[in-house]
Amino acid sequence: MPLDVILLVLFGALLHATWNAIVKAGSDKSLDAALISAGGAVSALPFLAFLPLPQASAWPFIGASAILQFAYFQLVAAAYRAGDIGLVYPLMRGCAPLLIAATSGFILKENLSGGALAGTMTICAGVLTLALEARRGSSRAVMLSLANACVIASYTYVDGIGARLSGNAVSYTLWMSLLPPVLLFSWAVSQRGTIAVARHVRCNWWRGLIGGAGSIASYGLALWAMTKAPVATVAALRETAILFALVISITVFKEKASVWRYVAGVVIAIGGLVLKLA
């Protein structure tokens, strides 16, 4: 992978860990997840007029992605209600590239080089090391994290293909961001009522705007990278966000970290280096 692609994916990984921390820190994780989704859409709107429309063949993928993103944000909120970010985030994010690496040859006909496969598997091994902590965490948190890993792998495929068909990965990303908040807030209003949702938005809009801008920038960088490198390799490198999440979990949330979290962090870093050298 070219160095510029690697650096931009790593920057996107930092942004991704940061907006997840915003959700974790919030008092109402479901509504905060919806706010961040809406913040991403608001951040996208000013740029739409300056970009070409995605090709017609990409629009079914935009629709499918919106449904998967709705499921993703719901599971993010549920997982953070159930467990620590230091356990939930690595399992949720790290199992997805393992699924992609195992299936991309069949689905996308992409054959990874030996070095790229080694780097991908090393990162996944580091993530799965955290499963050794599962017995200390909530079983519900673990199950929700694994379920979301399947959703992440699914929308990664959908958007990886859609971005390539669209003719412009940035345009695809911005248009893709518009529908999920509509679904999320419609669901929230149906469950909580308009007054409760409006009150939360009025008090926490800034969280959504900051987190949403980071979310859309992070994912846009990843989709752009997927037009330059194999999807499985980009997906694995993006999960170095786990390193940032581990640092945030310890320094910001003061979560207790066992030795396995540190071991996992080192293994993930080694995997990122292997990808660079591949």
From TrEMBL:
<dbReference type="GO" id="GO:0009103">
    <property type="term" value="P:lipopolysaccharide biosynthetic process"/>
</dbReference>
<keyword id="KW-0472">Membrane</keyword>
<feature type="transmembrane region" description="Helical">
    <location>
        <begin position="141"/>
        <end position="158"/>
    </location>
</feature>
<keyword id="KW-0812">Transmembrane</keyword>
<dbReference type="InterPro" id="IPR000390">
    <property type="entry name" value="Small_drug/metabolite_transptr"/>
</dbReference>
<feature type="transmembrane region" description="Helical">
    <location>
        <begin position="59"/>
        <end position="80"/>
    </location>
</feature>
<protein>
    <submittedName>
        <fullName>EamA family transporter</fullName>
    </submittedName>
</protein>
<keyword id="KW-0443">Lipid metabolism</keyword>
<dbReference type="GO" id="GO:0005886">
    <property type="term" value="C:plasma membrane"/>
</dbReference>
<keyword id="KW-0448">Lipopolysaccharide biosynthesis</keyword>
<feature type="transmembrane region" description="Helical">
    <location>
        <begin position="232"/>
        <end position="252"/>
    </location>
</feature>
<feature type="transmembrane region" description="Helical">
    <location>
        <begin position="114"/>
        <end position="134"/>
    </location>
</feature>
<feature type="transmembrane region" description="Helical">
    <location>
        <begin position="87"/>
        <end position="108"/>
    </location>
</feature>
<keyword id="KW-0444">Lipid biosynthesis</keyword>
<dbReference type="Pfam" id="PF00892">
    <property type="entry name" value="EamA"/>
</dbReference>
<dbReference type="InterPro" id="IPR037185">
    <property type="entry name" value="EmrE-like"/>
</dbReference>
<keyword id="KW-1133">Transmembrane helix</keyword>
<keyword id="KW-0441">Lipid A biosynthesis</keyword>
<feature type="transmembrane region" description="Helical">
    <location>
        <begin position="170"/>
        <end position="189"/>
    </location>
</feature>
<dbReference type="InterPro" id="IPR000620">
    <property type="entry name" value="EamA_dom"/>
</dbReference>
<feature type="transmembrane region" description="Helical">
    <location>
        <begin position="6"/>
        <end position="23"/>
    </location>
</feature>
<feature type="transmembrane region" description="Helical">
    <location>
        <begin position="35"/>
        <end position="53"/>
    </location>
</feature>
<keyword id="KW-1003">Cell membrane</keyword>
<dbReference type="GO" id="GO:0009245">
    <property type="term" value="P:lipid A biosynthetic process"/>
</dbReference>
<keyword id="KW-0997">Cell inner membrane</keyword>
<feature type="domain" description="EamA">
    <location>
        <begin position="141"/>
        <end position="274"/>
    </location>
</feature>
<feature type="transmembrane region" description="Helical">
    <location>
        <begin position="259"/>
        <end position="277"/>
    </location>
</feature>
<dbReference type="GO" id="GO:0022857">
    <property type="term" value="F:transmembrane transporter activity"/>
</dbReference>
<feature type="transmembrane region" description="Helical">
    <location>
        <begin position="209"/>
        <end position="226"/>
    </location>
</feature>
